[in-house]
Structures are given as structure tokens and as C-alpha cells.
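WARN retry 2 of 3 for item q-0093 after timeout on previous attempt; input resubmitted unchanged.
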Amino acid sequence: MLLRFRVANHRSIRDEQTLSFVAARRRGAPRQRLTEIPEIVSITGIYGANASGKSNVLDALRWMKWAIQRSQTSWAPNEGVPRRPFLLEEKARSAPSLYEVDFLHEGNRYSYGFEVDDEAVRGEWLFSFPHGRPRRLFDRTGPGENDYDFGRTLTGEIRRIATLTRDNALFLSSAASNNHPLLGALHQQLTTCMQFAGHDFHGERFRLKVIEELLQQPETEQDVNALLRLADLGIERAEVVTSDLPPELEESLEQLHRALSRAAGLRVTPPDTDSLKRRIQLRRAGSDVALPIDEESAGTRAWLSIAGLTLGALRDGSVLVVDEIDSSLHPMLSSSLLRMFKDPEINRHGAQLLFASHDTTLLGTLLAEELLSRDEVWFTQKDPEGATTLFPLTEFHPRRDENVERGYLQGRYGAVPYLNFDMVRKLFQERRATLDEDTA
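OK item q-0093 returned
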């Protein structure tokens, strides 16, 4: 469960920005004790104009997860850190990038973060919070093996692991690779508790792969098809079918694998032909005809694929991160996703939904009574230098009866594009006048 995410110098995010998942203190509520775990919101939505940086906030969290997962095992030893700094300012291109996340693991609060530049890891730290006060587990101040300061409560072969950690790899990743009990568990938490749903080709393929796995398990197959029927898409059920590949395709794949395996320095995994033989097809109500999912509408594919990740998050109590949650979905369907995460009878394990969207109906009350509370709404906006600022709706102290959707569209909170329609009309008038002169 996420409490807070802090980032600086990632794509359009130049200056340090913080996204909090902690619920705002209600008026009249007692102040929280230092030893208490704060109340966490189950949904966080980010709104803003096109190219304002909404997707970059989500991408920064995805990149952090990827670095934790892959830095020790996949990053080339002599090729530095494949980061994505702010490119519109020379100073930022050489400055370190910062990533930090506060999270809960087995009821305990931890804070883990790191700083990297193009060459190496420049800092890395991990703190726990027993009794509400920070306790250092480790603090790395540079890329060298002697630049570590370990807390007394962190046991195990930590010094040996430090000597095995490359300058461009994270110590947490190295500790997990060397089977450190606590750090391995925290590594697993951070790399498995978040699932990302993109809407490009690769993102949709990944989501449909998750659905394929769920449809092959009897206990989850029923839930997937129940959600599919409830969406009123005219689909009775989805199913996974297997068919043989054309012999010439199988032979071509085998030849390609042999050729790549013979190439110097390459270790190639054999092609997974079994997965290529499987495909999802959908049966319509009252019909014996089943169509491949690729022939269905974008909305049907979007709902089916996002439903699978939602079921997985609700089952595991994990974090689902969705960019453009409204893409190809009717507002009633996207609002239903939000309501699933907010319903305590459905969301029994503390799952969280983090999304970016342009769908302002989710801010209002037309679809349901206050889908998003005030502390669940955040905005992004770019300054004249192209840098993203992230800020919460609560900064504006909206009244309880205030129409947030209308206020947002009117620009009351910023984070909306401004298009002067009079200038648009003038542009076309000038163009028409030029054409009239040319034909005169």
C-alpha cells in the first residue's frame, strides 16, 4: 500500500514533486498520533491539460519499479543508468534524478528512495518507522562500496552484498538477488504490488495476457465473465481456445532461434509457441458464433483487459496504475471501476487505484454521489519553461457543496488548456481572405 511518492528530474518533472495517498484530515477529527498508520485513500486521480505531465508522473513511478526490479540483473555494467531527465535545461540534464516511495509492508511503514545520474547511483536509503519515528536501515552516499552506513537493526551479509553491488545498480536489487530476507521481501513488495495499464499496443497486449491467464483458472474465469456480462456489451462470455500454428511459421521460428543462438555472445530463449497457439474469443448472447477478440471494438477490449487487472488488484490488495482510464470506455464503465475500489465489501484488502484522465464526469455527481473526494483529486500544469507542477485539489479548499467538475472546466483550479476561439475564427477568416485574393 502506497503512502507517498516523491520524484524530481524525470521527463517533464524538473523540480521535486510529491504525490500523497494519505487522506486529508476531516474537519473536527482528532489529530493523528505519531505512532498511528495514517488513513490511506483507495483512489487517486490526476487531471490536467494535454502534455501537462500527467502520464509522466505515472511513468516516473513505473521507472522506479523497473529500476528496482532490473538494475542489478539487466543494466549493462559499463553503460551507466538509463534514466530520463528533464531535457529542456542544461543544468537539469546533468543533475541527479530523485525517486522515493513511502509504503506499508506487513503493517509497518518504510521509506525507500535513491538518486541517480547518467553514470551511477549517487544515493540510496531505506528507513523504517517503528513507533512513528524514523529508523535508518541503510544509507548509501555514493557509488563506492565504502559509501554505506548501515543501521544496527539491519542484519545479514550486508557488507558482502555491498561489495557485489555495481556502481550503477541499486543495493536493494543486489540484496534481493543475494537472498537477503528483509530486503528481499521489501524488493518483492515494491516490484509486485504495482501493475501498470497502458493503452498503447504493448500495454493492451500485456493486459490481454493477464486476462488469458485469468480465463484459464476456474475461480477467476467466473468473475471475469460476470464483469463482462454486467458491462452490457452484448457479450455472454470470453474463452481461451488453442489452435495449431501453420507448419511454415513454426519452422521459421525454429530457424530464427537457431540462427540467433549461433550468433556470438547471444543467449536466446526458445520461442514460446504454446502461447502463440492460444487466443481469446468472445461469444455473443444468443449466438453460437465466437469472434476473436481482435475483431471486437476498442471499448470491449479495453473493458475486458482492465477488468482483469482490477480483479487481480482487488484480490491481492495491490496498486493498479492506469493511464487514460477513460480511453475507449463509456463514463458509466470507468465510474464503475472507481466504485469497485471505494466499496469496502468489494475492496477488502486495501487495493489502490492511481489513474490519469480527462473524463471530468468522474469529478462530478452525475454518475454517482461524489465518486472522487477532495483528497483524491490532483492536477498537473506546465510552467513557461515546460516543467510540470503537481498539486492537490485540497490546496484550493473547495466548499463541501462546490461543483468540482464545473470549477475545473472553468479554470478555477488551473490545469486546463486555454484556447482563444476568437483567434481560431480569425485564423480561418485570414486564410479565406487569402484564398479569395488568389482566385480574384
